[in-house]
Amino acid sequence: MTGHYLAMQCDGPGQPLRVVHRAMPVPGPKEMLIEVAACGVCRTDLHVIDGDIPAHYPIVPGHEIVGHIRQLGSKVEGFELGERIGVPWLGHTCGECDYCRSGRENLCDVPEFTGCTRDGGYAEFVVADSRYCFSLPYRFSDAEAAPLLCAGLIGWRAFRLAGEGDRVGLYGFGAAAHILAQIAVWQGRYVYAFTKPGDVAGQAFARKLGCVWAGGSDVPPPQPLDGAILFAPVGSLVPSALKAVRKGGRVVCAGIHMSDIPAFHYADLWGERSICSVANLTREDGLEFLTAADKSGISPSVETMPLAQANDALTRLRNGLVQGAAVLMP
Ligand SMILES: [Zn+2]
Ligand SMILES: [Zn+2]
């Protein structure tokens, strides 16, 4: 394809996105040119724009991409022109480092990340490495499928690491938690939702989705939890979550960036409690999660906005005004 396409570009840390017109890219042998139908807005996009994590500028953010294939590289396998696919955060791995060779490609030493080190989906078109793209379940609309690709998928990885106990706490009830809560409820587990103190609307939203309890993150849960996941990038929640889990419980930090964790008493960690982080995703996580999302009948709650309003969408997310997930529609 020829011509130009519109993209929202970040020129450097702290810069707002601006509209640019780029020449249509040509996909490499294993890449595909994708016409973007929807792209989710993730907290990580804020970290890219703020310069909290290493990114390659200028960059087009966006790593929850749903689109249709418009051009296939000469060596692409398993996809067809016109097919609807998803492009996630993990854009490429080396396949050769110790991590890649031991089934932990999420920790690859020289990875590429969509919308961070390679251009993402805040645009009308994007080029993606076909080997890291996913077919998407039909039952989700373009906008509904978008947040599955990071919020859902990396949330799923965190969820599995939190263990198999019945009572799971979710700190920060945004895009990821609202999807995970529905899956956990479908599995017959009890979900405890922790929002910003005083966020009554967020707590009501959590209860509507089947959480057995919802309250401020400054309040202990009514029962000890088996595991907890922190989606909020707030380090001071780590000691709170440790206090909320019972012996043997794990606290999983799911964000890519978090403020410093304050000192806490060893007694809070004692009893084989543990803290771990979750980094990125593997393709296997993606396949497993998308199957679970399809079967469980979850319904992502999305707020759609035109692509040109990407800066407004980011501001809404930063200010905690998005219920569920924000999605940009080119
Ligand atoms: Zn690698
Ligand atoms: Zn993300």
Account of the protein in words:
With 330 residues, the protein is an alpha/beta fold. The chain contains ten helices and 17 strands. The protein folds into two domains: 4-150 and 280-329, Quinone Oxidoreductase, Chain A, domain 1; 153-277, NAD(P)-binding Rossmann-like Domain (Rossmann fold, 3-Layer(aba) Sandwich). The protein has helices at 43-50, 98-101, 142-145, 151-161, 175-186, 200-208, 237-244, 266-269, 283-296, 310-318, and strands at residues 4-9, 18-23, 31-41, 65-72, 84-87, 90-92, 112-113, 125-129, 134-135, 167-171, 190-195, 213-216, 225-230, 245-253, 274-277, 302-306, 325-329. The strands form four sheets. Strands 3, 4, 5, 8, 9, 16 and 17 form a seven-stranded mixed β-sheet that branches. A six-stranded parallel β-sheet has the order 12-11-10-13-14-15, with helices on both faces. Helix 7 (237-244) links the parallel strand 13 (225-230) and strand 14 (245-253). Helix 4 packs across helix 5 and helix 4 packs across helix 9 (283-296). The protein starts with a strand and ends with a strand. One zinc ion binds at residues 42, 44, 63, 89, 150.
